[in-house]
Amino acid sequence: MAVEAGTRIIADDQARRILKTIGLKQQNEAEFTLDDIASTVDLVQVQPRMVPAAKPKPKEAEKVAESEEKDESVAGSVWLDALQSVLKRVPVMNAVMKPVRHELVPVENGRIAGANPDKVFFYLAPDDSMRGYRVSRGDVALMVPAQSPVDGAIMLMNYNQHRCLRKIKVLDDRRVLLQSYDREHEAETVDISDIGFIARAVRVTFEL
Q: pTM score, two decimals?
């Protein structure tokens, strides 16, 4: 019974004696057909079972999700780092030097208008005192740091406890002419030592 059930295997000589007793001849390996072999094999038992991939446990799933998010954030930071080499978010400052928004500015050879990208900023013109020089209220001027007067430049400065834009004319090594132009041209001669120069305008943009 155990042999019939397939739980016990008999030796070859025993199999030959049984075949001879019941009048069947012994078949060698070449005489067996595929059908003979198939009829003696339980395909259900011998076929390897396909084991589905185990679903991750809740904690494991959270770890996988965190890992994917981390990968995405790393990839995002790489992109940001790459973009910072060609574009810089430059703050737009109001009259009290508080950022009101940011503008993207191209970085060329690691500089913006020849200056350190971390030092430049935009200045939002607070009034029309420079309208005659094509800088009106609401216009945005790109500023680069400058602590000394630049002849012919429009500069941001602290003067008489007031922050303002003025066009500079250097008179000598001690004095400058501060020029403004709203409805009419105005000019004032001032000692350089009385002025706190902040930056000079290199470009002005305005909305149509």
A: 0.60
